[in-house]
Amino acid sequence: MDMPKPSADHDRLGLLCGDWRGTETMHPSPWDPRGGTAEGHTRSRRALAGVAVLSDYQQRRGGVRTFEDHGVYTWDPAAREVVLHWFDGMGQGREQFRGTWHGDQLVPTSHNPQGRMRLRCDCARPGVLVSGMETSMDGRTWSKLFDGTYHRAP
Questions:
Q1: SS3 string of 75-89?
Q2: What is the pTM (predicted TM-score) of this model?
């Protein structure tokens, strides 16, 4: 039996792949009342015969690791959307984000007992990833959690 081949939708996830480093602006939030700046580093690669992207992220402030997460991006052909399975050091277990591409920008959202989260990954400029996350209790009023601009390491 031949293994299934990744579709064009799976291939598009490759835009997220790379060794990304950049500066983040943390906006005041319940998790960080004062906000500030941080350094972010993400390593993402294709996996599972090309049908997934694995992503590992670390945030540092003042040289100290302050947050980390692991993501598994896949494509759900039945729903025609990207699925992100997110695990982080907060200990809440797996969170699932779902969303679609808008041009070169991926915008998946999640809904959990603490509210909603919306992630933005803008891959429009070669070698640059612009990302951010917002939170909402009701899905109508959103507050910025962070904004970051990352450059692909050579």
A1: EECCCCEEEEEEEEC
A2: 0.92
